Structures are given as C-alpha cells and as structure tokens.
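Anyone else keep sequences and structure tokens together like this?

Example one:
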Amino acid sequence: MLIVHGSSDGLPKFNEIIQLCIVKDNPIFIVRGVCAWYREHYGGFELSESPTREVGLIELGDLEDPYPLVEYIVAGLRMVILKRFVLVKGLKVLVLGTGSIPLALNCDSPLERSGQECLTMSNPAVLRVIFGDGSDSRKLHMVSGIPKTVDEVHDLVKASFRLHQEFRLQYMDSDFNEFMNLTSVSEIQKMGTLKVIYTPLEEPYITLYTVEPTASSSPVPNTESSSLASSSSDATLCTSTPHSSPEVHTSGLSWPLVFVVPKFSYEAELELQQKNTEFETKGTHFNPGPKLKGIILDGLAQEMMKYTKYPKDYQCEEVAAALTKAHPCLGQLGCKSGFSGWKQSLKYKMQNYRTKLGRLGHPEIRVNSLKHKREGQGKSAAHIKKPRKAEVNYIPLHPKGETEDSLESERIALLTEVAKRDNEAVIKAKMEKTFSYRRQEVVNQRPRIEDFKNRWPALFEQSEVNAEFLRVTTKPLRSKFLSQFDNFTVKLMQILQNKGGVKGQRIKRFLEMADSCSNIDLRRECILRSLVVYLNEDPDAFFKEYESTEEAEGDITATVMGIYSIRSQGHQEPDDIGVVIEGVKVMDNISTIINAFIVLFGLIYALDLAYPDSMKYTFEFVQKILMNLDGHKLNVKIQQLKIKLFA
C-alpha cells in the first residue's frame, strides 16, 4: 500500500509501506520512496522504483492524509490515483475528481506579486449536478468553496466530469421551484442543485469509427462465427457527434500505438482463415492472387488514410507487421522480417490512393499537384507540403455544407465579434468552424505574419492558441507540456548537473537560481534555460531581456523568432513578456516566460512554421519527448538525452 508524504515540484510524493511498527502506542511506518509522474492519458500517476531505494520512517501524525492508496496494473504499468484532497505543508494539491490533472499552489510563496491567490478550505461546498432528464445525477465536491464567477463554475463542472460537448448551467430556484439559467454565483446555495443543459447540435449526424482495443477489453473466443461475423475482438465500434468536438470538420486521428488490421470482405476473410489453418497444421505460406491481394491492400490503405495521407516508413512497416501477425499465412519467405514485400506494396498503394484523392480535389493532396506549384517548382517532388511535425489535421476538409465564400463571410463576422467584450463562446465557435479555411490559407498561401494577424486576430490569444494546437494535433498543449515537463524535472536536473566545462558552469548558475525559487514558473524557466545550454544552444539569443520599451522596439524588428521580456531597473517582476515572429510582436502581456514558450510552440504548429535553427534541438526535445509527437526518429543529441532520461 502507498501513502502520500511531502511533495516534489508541485506534485505529491508517494511512499510504499514496507512494515508497520508500534512504538509507545504510536504507529510508525517504515517506507520506501517511489518515483511517480503524472500520466494524463490514464488520469493517474505511474510508479517506478526509486534509483536511490531510500528507506525512511514516517509517523502517523506526520501524514498530510492518512487515507491509504492501493496501486493497480494497467498495460503493465504500476498506477495509482489520488482519492481525496491533500494538503502538503503549505502546498495545496487539489484533485478535481478521478482522472483530472492535479493543480498545485504554493501558499507560502508571495503569489500576490502576480495577482494570484491561494485556495482556502474555509467554505467547502457540495452540489448535486443533474444530467439530461434527471435519471443521471452526480455529486460535485467544491473543496475550496463556491467559485467567484459563473465561468469558473462552468470550468469546474467541465473538468470534474470530463465533459466535451458545449453546455450551459441552470440552478434550482427556491421561489419558483424550477430550474433557471445560472447568471450569478450568488444563486448557488450549498447542498443545492445544478443542471447541465447541452447546447443543441446543428445538423446532427453520427460518425462511426474504430478505436484501438484497450487492455480491459475482454477476449473473444476464436471461433468461425466470431472471427468472420464479428470484429469486436479487433476493434471497438464507437459513435461520435462531430459537431461537439474539435473534430467538427476533420477526420484525422492520431496514429495508434498498435495498428489494428481491419476486417476485409467476407470471401477474403473466409479464404484467409482457411489458409491460416493450413499454415498452422502444415506450415505452408500463402501467396494471394492479384484480386485477393488488391482487396487486402485496399482495406489496409483505407484504414491508414484515417490517420495520415503521407505515412512514414516506420508506419508502413508497422502495418505490414500487423498484417502478418493477424494472418500468419501471409508471411513472406526470402526476407529477414517476413513482410518487406507487403511494406513496399503498401507504399505503392498509398501513392495510388493519393492520386485518386487528388483527382477528387482533396485539399491536402491537391496542394502538391503540379498546377498548384509556384513557378520554378515544376517537379512533383519539389517543396512537398505535408505533415512534418506529427500534425493530424494538416489541411482538413471544409465542414459539411460550407464553401470558401461562406467561410470568408464567417471570418469577416469574426472580426466584429473580436471587438466585443465577454464574447469568448461565440469567438470559439467561429474559430472552430473556420479551422479548415484558415489551415488552407496558412499552408497554401504562406502569408506574412503581420498580414495573417490582421486577418485572424482571434488566433493570437492564449486560449485560441491552445485550441488550435488541439485541432491540429488532437493533443492538449499547455496541460500536456507542463505535466510532462514536471515529470522529467528531477531526472533532468540530475543529468544537467553532471554537465562539465564552461557550459556546465553556466548550467549550475541556472540550477542554483532554480533551487532558490519558490515560484514554480520561475523554477521551470531556469530549468528550460539550462536545457537549452545543455543542447549547445544559446538561451540569451532566444530569450531576450530589455530595460525599456524603446530598447525592445528597436531590436524586435530584426528578430526572426524569439521571446522578449522588459524589466525596469530595480524591479524583480517584468513589465511585459511577449512573443516575436518575423519581426512582429504577435502576443504580449504574457504572465511568465514558460507560458510564452508554450504559446510560441503552439503558434509554430498553428502557423505551420519551421523551428528556428538556433533552437531546433530544444524544440525537437519538446515535440518528440515532452509532447510525444512523432518520437520514432530522433537527432543523435536528443536520442542520447532520451536514453539518460529513461535509464
């Protein structure tokens, strides 16, 4: 069993109970510390053995929470989930229900300087939340009391119950004894009732797609009826209403961890099953004829098209390996892997499919046709525009029923909405609707940043940068970055401290500043700067500091890409922090350097930009290690760092 005692980098520290002793009627735990980092996908902490294997004693009275935790196994990983609110010696770790991301605030640090306030438990509240017709009701614990605004209540309900569809809230009015729209938090009473009203969908329709099986999927008996008439053992049939998710007008899915071979036609499955049985009994390989081979390749290509139009070499190899594993009779003699021929055939088949899609006018394929290339680029292989940083929705199709003219009208209307106050919901909906139109403009026309900002000013807000990154990659930006960065902090600092030479001395100065910081964002900034130095890059050339606005303005126009901060003499806190791209100040008044770096990373994806040469290794580390986007092929530097991190 596990107990929580202490904290590390804003997250609780877990200890494994070895033995319980009673000393003078006081229980004392003999524990061994374990390493833990937050796994957003599972909504819990993954545990691993501590390299130091340090053993200690903890008295019952020293525990912040005496509630014991039990670990469990998911896909071979040791996992644990916090069950309740934990207070860790001046550091509050608030868990908004099972599976949410812990929020840590240091109540001893001078957060007043940045306008933040620590959470308190003076007025905890419990509410009943009703979904639908009332048959589904759940309890919502507000350990820090009722929030100060309706938006905060909305966000709390959304985070606690993991709601994805847009909704509004109603409360039970005591005068009329009916549910009424919630407009003020003063209308919420302790032990009161809220009701979730989902926003009606436009043109509702259902899309069916397959998702990879999970570890909890129950096996299906290997019978003829189950293998031919049912595909439940290979894939799970799911439904979604595209208008309620970021994939309103996209069909892209992230490349699966395990590729699931689709079911082919009934005749093909029957013949393959007979040949598989023959292979198991006699060891005879099967060389399918042109018709059957075409059916197999068509099925695989259609399944691959759900994830990417331009599969990489390793992806074709994974699909070929999955095919020969699902149907052993299709293994090929004469090659070491047993599926090299299938791999090459898949590449040709995907090329043929792209040709067909291009003739049908698919935007992601059409952009690379010869007639759409600029003068001097009249070669089919010249300047291919395709996903290079694991973008899932690179150039998506327009929403159903929309044209370029109608979406241009939406863009013009969006300019008016941006000028209005408290209009985030309308702006978000219109940005969602015009995503495909905006992506085609970014990829096809390559506009200047200044012109693009004038056309799409709503994109240059932190919330919309996060939303755009989610649309492009299907992964959250800020929460994913911070959780992974904090997970690697301890191990990363150990690696950085071992660096020698002049760079090692410079890194040590940054790490000393990190150790002396009580502000978690300043600590993250120091570690990020140390990482830049470790990768033989210059942080001062990228993170530029100025003492006045006039000094900054003169230098910003010559900056290709970077982050600036203006700090007046005698002031510890910066007056302004912003992001510069192509000599244009695209965003300013950002709270911290680490947030500015996250925003810049998101803008690189939103604007389809290349990484700056002076920081390409740092951004590759963020993309492939922290965000886990296309981490199969790494630079030598990043590969060596990854080996040390996971050692």
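And example two:
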Amino acid sequence: TERASQANTQPSIPIEPRPRSRLLRRSLQVAKYTSYFVLSATVGVLAIGAGFFIHDAFTYTDRHVDRVPVSPLALHPERGGPKNLPVVEALLADEEDEEAKKLSEKPKLVIVGGGWGSVATLQTLAQGEYHVTVVAPENFTTFTPLLPSAAVGTVQFRSLIEPLRKIIARLHGQMIYGKAMDLVMSERLLEVEVLDASGHPQRIYVPYDKLIIACGSVSSTHGVPGLEHCFQLKSISDAQAIRRRIINNFETASLPTTSPEERMRLLSFVVCGGGPTGVETAAEIHDLCQEDIINYYPKICREDVSIHLIQSREHILNTYSEAISNFAEDKFRRENVDLITSARVSAVFPDHVVYTIKDADGKITTHEIENNFVLWSTGIAMNPFAERITNLLPNQVHKKAIVVDAHLRVKGAPLGEVYALGDCATIETSAVDYLLELVDEADKDKNGKIDYDEFEIMVQRIKQRIPMSESHLDKVRTLFNRYDSDADNSLNLNELCKLLEELGNHITALPPTAQVASQQGKYLGRKLNKLAARREVLEANFVKDLDEAVLGPFRYRHLGSLAYIGNAAVFDLGNLSFMGGLFAMYAWRGVYWNEQVSARTRALLMIDWIIRGVWGRDLSIL
C-alpha cells in the first residue's frame, strides 16, 4: 500500500508530440501565403473598384451650359483679304470664360499641321502667352514610327493617335479642322479650306501674328508611272488600307477556287524602298506570316508567301552604319526575304512590278514580280502648301522643302512672323548669300579684303548663321591658307566666295525624321516663350532681331536611329552600334513607349503588346 501511494504521488513525465512531417509543414506554409495573396488581391480589386466607382460618381454628373457668350464676329465673320473671303477674327470659344477672354487679346499664334513638330511646340509653350490655333486636316496626331506595326495588327490604330484638342487644352487653344491652301503675308492671312454643313468645301482666312508651318511632306514619285496601284505608309488611313489588303489577300488565297498561280501572286508582297519604313514593314509582314497566318490559315498559304524588298542603293538601311546594314541583310536572307539591291522600279502595274538592275559591266536588265501588294516608300516630296509658300518667295530655290535660317524663320518672309519646321523645311547650308554682309562685319579696315584676324571674326559669324558648319571650321588657319591662292595673307571677294561655296557643299542637311522635327518644335516653343516674356523690354530698346536676341540658333543633337527587323532591332548611336534579338527588340519597344504623347497611349500600347503576345494579332477585316 505504501509503495502504491508513492507511485501515485510521483510526477508524470509529459509525452512529446510527434513532429509534423516536412511535407505537412510546407503545405501549411504554402496555404498561409496563398491565403495572404488571395486576401491582398481581393482587397486590391475592391480598392480599385471603389476608386472607379468614386471616379464615376463624380464624373457622370449633370452639367448644364446655359447662355454661353459668343462673339458676334465668330457667328458672322466679316469678309476681306485679296479674295474677299470670311476672315475669322474670332472663334466660338473666345469669350466663353475669363481665361478665353484674356487669351483673345494675346498675339495670335497659328500652327499648320499636327505632326511631331507641332505637338512638340504645343507641349513646350507656356500657358497664357499666346492665342493658339491649330489648323490641320486631321484632328489627331499620329505616332508614325509604329505605323508598320499597326498595318499588320501588332498594335491597334487608336493606340497610336492622340486627339489634338486634348493636347491644346492645356493652352486653352482652339482648332480649325481644315487644310491650309495659301498665304497672304502682306496682310498676315492664312487661307484655309474647310467643309461647310453640307460637306462642300469653302475657303476662309485665319489671321495670325506668328505662323508656324509644320505641314509635313508627301511621298516622292521619282517620275515612276503606275503609283496609283501602290500603297503608302504615312498616315493611319494608309495603315488601315494596307491591313485590309493583306488580310483580304490571305482570305482569297485560302479559297479552293483560287488557282496555284493566282495564290502565289496574291501572296507576293513587294516593298519599294530600303529605308526604315520599308524594312520595318517587310519585317512586320514576315512576323505576321510566321506567328499568326501559319496557325489560322491553310499551311500552303504560308508556304506560298514571298516578300520582296527593292532598294536603289547597294544596301538596305544605308543611312545606318555598315555593320547594321549587314546584320539586317543577313537576317532577311535567313528568313527568305528577297533582297533586290542596286535596282530601280521603272513601272507599277495592277498585277506586277517592273524594275531594272545594272550589273558590274553596266548592262541593264529588266525584271518583273507578280504581286497583289506594293508599298511605295522611297523618299519624300514637297507638300502642296509648302510648295505654294516657295512659289510666293523669290529666294526659295529648294525642290523638296521650304528653306529656313538657323532660327527656323522662312527665308524671304517678314522677319519673325513665319516659321517652318519638320519635313516641310530645311535649314540653309550655304553662306554665300551672306557674303557681302559677312565682309562688311569683319572688314575692320574697310580695304575690301579679309586678313587672318578679320577671318577669325568672319568664322564666328558664319557659325552663328550656319551652326551645322562648325565641324568644318575648326581649323581656321589651314582653311585660310588653303583659299589664299595669291598668298598675300588676305582673302579677296572671289576667294571668299569660293570658300563659302565649297563649305556649303560639304554641309549635310538634316534628315527629315521625327527626331529632328521634335527637337525643332521644342526649340521653337522655348523661343516663343522667351519672346513673350521679353518682348516689351526688347522693343523698348529698339532691338531689331528679336529672335536672335532671346535665343541662339537651333542646334540639332542626334540621339541615334533605330529600326525593327523582325523580333530583333538595331540601334545606330553614332560611334556605337547595337543590334540583337529579343533584348534589342524590347529596348526598341521601350524607347518608343517612352516617346508616346500621353499616358493614355502608353497604356494602350502596353496592352496591345500583351494581347499580341498572349492571343496573337487581330485578323479581322474592318
């Protein structure tokens, strides 16, 4: 009994629970973090939904507009000008609020066009300094570098456009949906063609204090007959037409009633021009065939596809480095894209293209390619309105663009009133026109000759007037001795004239690219801001050249060129070239994504790329 009681009084030893298995522990841990993720995702979705609800609650409200004040001149414009047309002295929104009334008293700034140069100017202008009016035949701006992608459905058309009215809203600007036709510089009137309520064209005058011409360019024909059978790629409507034709060709080629010969003709795509637009279009068509056509159309359609790229030079992308040209050519050859270099298109017919090739012996041979699609992308020509401007001014002799000075002022127009930028303009490269003026400024002893010290002064003035000449004027003494033909340690007028002529021949004009137009637009926006801020002071001091007083001449900074060549991209950064596959392609996308006009287009573009990667391109015919 005693032993039993002692046994009962002894403490019991706890038994440790069996350890959980490693699999069970990991399962519980995964379940815990999964629940955290699901809970946080649910909270995030609810928060976003609540945000949209609050936004909609404050956005979709009744807004009543009663008795909006409108200027009588906006309702009934007076007639005037050489053609006795309605003069739009006031617009419908000029008196609708106090801000509009203040702006109606500001200098009238009229911008012709809605491209890269115009948008860059609008985004740089300060608010409240000008009464801004944009005159454009389209009420949106287009991100043109991605038009080849839109033409095959890689991105959607609306992802590349931004309404101009949203861009000018920051400036409380206004827009006239029409086409600039003529200019009366003596009365500062811009003649614009618009459509009336019945759809019939009518002409009006739009007055201006300052005019910016940024109307762009058109495709060059080079005198080739039959270009009415070709597509171009300069606008959204061009990309839409190309997309319809490409998909139509594949649908017709898929029919059992289509003969093999006709199917091969339908699926033959010819691109004329080996520049960035032509190369990127050929690459996009190839991507469409490899990634979508092969999955959703009969396989024989993919087999019968042929892509031909005709280039007049020896290499495609000839403005890029040699390494980039070779890389692009090698890639196209591996993908069976038919590269036809050193060839010229002589005629285009509805069902075939005729081109010629000159061999090493100088013998010219003629060839034909049957097709049902031709893209013409072989350079630019002068816009009709730009051509009209050059015809009005006697010293405008350039055949492809309006000549402007280093401050982007149109040569021959009233000083400081008319500017031009972008594809429709080219900065002068010749200083011969300024010969007498340069001599008068530099010839301190007035003996009619320029010695070395005076030549140094002249060189500085040339650099100010022609900034692109700076790289050619770095060795002043060598240049002076080279043209001092009589070795009298001075330059006479004939020697100076020869020097300036050869200098102009060595200067390369700026390329007609979006990069150039954008930089020019930002420069002009800054200049106009400074003019508005300092105008009264400068005029009080009787400064004649206001443009030169507020800001120096335009200087272009080349940031590099890039091109897409089919799931790969190339970058030409001057002294550095970069080319590669997917990594380079995503870098190319990143650059263009960053260059978008608005956050809206950035979001749409990102969504388009995701949709293409997951579900492929849209093959609908709209």
